[in-house]
Amino acid sequence: MGAKSDKIILYTSQSPIVIKTLLEQKVCYVKREYIVKKYQEVSSIFLEAYNWYINKAQNIVKRTEKAEYPFWAFIKADYAGGYPGNYMLTLEVPIEEVIFFKVEAWNKILNLKYLGVDEEDEKRHKDMLVKQNISIESDIFIKPFYSNLKAQVKKSWDNLFKYDKLIKSVGVQEGNFQSSLWKLEKEWIADIKEI
Length: 195
Fold this sequence. Notes:
The protein is an alpha+beta fold and about 200 residues long. Helices cover about 40% and strands about 20% of the residues. The protein contains nine helices and nine strands. It has a four-stranded antiparallel β-sheet with strand order 1-2-5-9. Strands 4-7-6 form a three-stranded antiparallel β-sheet. It has a two-stranded antiparallel sheet with strand order 3-8. Strand 1 (about 5) and strand 2 (about 5-15) form a beta hairpin. The chain is globular and about 55 Å long. The mean pLDDT is about 90. InterPro entries: DUF3841. This is DUF3841 domain-containing protein.
């Protein structure tokens, strides 16, 4: 599952409507309305993280105007998940179209948590939360009086992209890496299986 010349094999689980659009139009993009529909009452939490992501990620791989948000893909099929009735796509994607990061790092961002450079940095942040009597870290985003801490947490999220250049230069054979794509192209499909 590593780099194959200038391409990489990735896996993504997608709904029937995405597959239909992809096969008919040969390219598919994510729209904001799809995220709001999918996550409903908690969509604002996801959009906080997603909006930060697109602002930063478009500096790594250029985002087209049609791509409001990214598709998520994985280097291991096990991580791609999926729901019954969805489809598992095996993609062969040009590596310059991909942005790589660790699954757990992105999960921290989705939970509006600090993403330290290393364990020591994480410990310093947790100690600071204890000193400030903050027991629920996401309160930094939800409550109005933590603007400085909110800025610090968002700045820490830049650590998400620290593996991108390494993976693109040496490839990856294993690990819990996730990726994003600004679009899906029909020509990238190596295999489609119903879940």
